Structure formats: structure tokens, C-alpha cells
Amino acid sequence: xxxxxxxxxxxxxxxxxxxxxxxxxxxxxxxxxxxxxxxxxxxxxxxxxxxxxxxxxxxxxxxxxxxxxxxxxxxxxxxxxxxxxxxxxxxxxxxxxxxxxxxxxxxxxxxxxxxxxxxxxxxxxxxxxxxxxxxxxxxxxxxxxxxxxx
Length: 150
What we know:
150 residues; mainly beta; Lipocalin
């Protein structure tokens, strides 16, 4: 499991180069996404195995109402930029989460994730395509994140 946690940021950054897109007029920002989310389970990929994140790990995503997000791993900021949540396109029932990130060349591109669950307490998304990497997050109570406020 520790190797999965160490490779998570690398996977996210590597996926940036796989799928770049631009914002469109149909983007939406539902208030359900705004807040702090703690990574609870991660997995998928070739094995499909899902593993809980060890207690005490500080891996989280914080989505602001101003369309910005901050990605943390073990309390360290890995990325701060903008996000969009786009309604499902075409025949897909899955909305897409677009995170603007730096790719390996330092360019800013949107990395695309298919959202399978977005509720008041759960956020689950995966990389598109075969053998997706799946991330499951749980909402952190606002009182627990008072130190995170800007």
C-alpha cells in the first residue's frame, strides 16, 4: 500500500499528458464538490485491486467555490490550480472532473477524470480508458479543516 501512496502523485501527473482538453460553456460548478475531501481508497489499474489508505495519512483534495483546488499528499501541497466539473457528454452518464495541472514539460493542461459518485459525503472518480485508476474520497467535516482555510 505505501508504494501506491508514493505513486499516486506520479500517476496523476502522468495522466495529465494522456488527456488534455479545454473548458467549454457547458461547465458547471455544483456546490456539492466544494470543500475538503480525504482520500480513503485507491486502486484499480491492471489488478483492479482497491486498497484503503492507512489511517493517519493526509492525502486530500480541497475544492474552493472560486474554481480552485489544492492537492495534498502527506500535508504537502502537490498542486494548486483550477478545476471544472462538466456534465456528461454524449451517451456517457458520468460527469467529468477537469483538473488543470502541470504536465511533465511544465505546460498547464486539463487532466480528465470520470466521476462515478458525487454526493454530500462521497466522491469517486477514475481515469478514462481501460484499466482505470480509481480514487475514492470522503468529505472532511468543516471544523476539521479550519486550519486549511485561506
